[in-house]
Amino acid sequence: MAAQEVKDAELRVDGVAKRYGAVVALGGVSLSVAAGEFLTILGPSGSGKTTLLKVVAGFEFPDAGRVTVGGADITDVSPAKRNIGMVFQNYALFPHMSVARNIAFPLQMRSVSRSEIERRVVEAMALVELRGYGERLPSQLSGGQQQRVALARAVVFDPTLLLLDEPFGALDRKLRESMQLEVRRLQRRLGLTTVFITHDQEEALVLSDRIAVMDGGAIRQIGAPDEIYDRPADAFVAQFIGESNLLVGEIAAPDRVRLDDGTSVTVRGLGGGRGRVRLLVRPEKMAIGSATNRFTGTVVEAVYLGEAHKLRVRVAGGVELMVRGHHAVSTGASVTVGFAPEDAHVIRGAG
């Protein structure tokens, strides 16, 4: 994929490739991250996202391609000289050092004066709401507090770039959601160019200015969260981001698709031509009752989610459709479900 052009890019990755024996971890990845932007790299295990982060951080050197930050080529620069802050999933705190000493460590490595270190550590602790915790050891902190220490240590030396490698994976759901918002506020306040790695789709949608979806060592799509969710580039992205109904068929007319089960549906945005397509309809776009495109079937699963009901409805040909809404319907009930022509996103080239 060609490099994504972003004005005043702070980070640029051009054609980065990395192999481990016969395994292609990165197949010539290119992207740009603008100054102050929060970019999430999202993908399943083995997609190459962590390898890409390691190349940017300097923990791995690419077989091909270049990495630049602020216009300076850092491809061959050691990690210690890249001025990049990093937070890991396991926090990587020094267990024998106090909170204050953990935060001070990167400043000491840069030979910052003692008075300046003390000032910056106090500032960083206030920034992550850890005033008064300076003398505690990591073992005396909760998981969320340890995460805050790791964040403070990553930003205390004014890094050019902040890298976050699945930093919330070890936290419970409630604390994870709280830390997500805290990191976003901190990133915006400091104006830090940030690259965030996760396999959690919801997390990516909540946090990001843009999302790069990776699979098989390549970027499948890069765009704003609503673009990735509403207009996925292919079936992989559609299925990986959120729940999806994918209906396969053939274009029969400028506004009609004949599905493989013989049903004909009306769709906006086909754009003419012929060929195989997939129609993506998100569960929340499926309605129970009257709709332009209707299917009759049986509820095979009904789940109450608190804010909504989720139904799995089996229709003709054994196809199962996911419906998310406010109607409570019992398992085994016969229902009619459907969608409006404008609520189907067309993905061309279905097999």
Task: Going across the biggest sheet, name each strand in turn.
Answer: 6-7-8-3-9-10
What's the story with the biggest beta sheet?
6 strands, mixed
Residue-averaged pLDDT, rounded? 91
Ends: how far apart? Answer: 22 Å
Number of strands: 20
Q: What is the overall number of helices?
A: 8
Protein described:
- Strand 12 and strand 13 (264-266) form a beta hairpin.
- Mean pLDDT is 91; it is low at 1-8.
- 38% of the residues are buried.
- The two termini are 22 Å apart.
- By secondary structure, the chain is α+β, with helices and mostly antiparallel strands.
- The protein is elongated.
- The protein has a six-stranded mixed beta sheet with strand order 6-7-8-3-9-10, with helices on both faces. A five-stranded antiparallel beta sheet has the order 13-12-11-14-20.
- It contains eight helices and 20 strands.
Provide the descriptors you would attach to this structure in a database record.
351 residues; alpha+beta; five-stranded antiparallel beta sheet; 20 strands; disordered N terminus
